[in-house]
Amino acid sequence: MTEPDDREAQDPTEISHWRPLRRLLDALDDDIARLYEQLDVRGVRPRHTMPLIRLSRRGPMTIRQLAQSLEVTHSAMSQTVSALRNEGLVTTRPGADARTREVTLTEKGSELVPFLEAEWRATEEAVAELDAEIPYPLTRVVHDIERELAREPFRDRITRHLRSVRQPPQ
């Protein structure tokens, strides 16, 4: 029997090219959440900002419409709407058919939107400022990655690297 090489013997989860980016994004979101706490904005997480602003700008939407407009899954938006409803920021009611729920801002949610829009704009300005301070702007890196993924999708790249691996049991 042959010994596995060092790479095979190592726990693969100890190596990650994505983890630093995820940690960075989490840290940025945590700073926004701390800002909300400092300003006594309760019941809102950074991930709630987009749906609240979108509902304010476009009016009531079904969970599916809201999810599609924000490019997230229906499941993720359903969880977000549930959290927002628990905080009294939105209400839901049956939609046009029994399978849909329409989401509407409450007065409390509407009152928060001007602050959330101002915070969104300030955050975008801070990100643009940071982007200009680094030698290779993250926005350029993201566009370059998107271009290369259009050329060869991520799933295809993973599949190419899995060719030598035995298929999972059925």
TrEMBL record:
A Pfam family that the UniProt record links to this protein: MarR_2
Keyword entries, A-Z: DNA-binding, Transcription, Transcription regulation
UniProt xrefs under SMART domains: HTH_MARR
Biological process according to GO: response to stress
Domain HTH marR-type: 14-150
Domain of life from the UniProt record: Bacteria
Keyword flag Transcription regulation: yes
Molecular function GO labels: DNA binding; DNA-binding transcription factor activity
PANTHER family in the cross-refs: TRANSCRIPTIONAL REGULATOR SLYA, TRANSCRIPTIONAL REGULATOR, MARR FAMILY
Name of the protein described by the UniProt record: DNA-binding MarR family transcriptional regulator
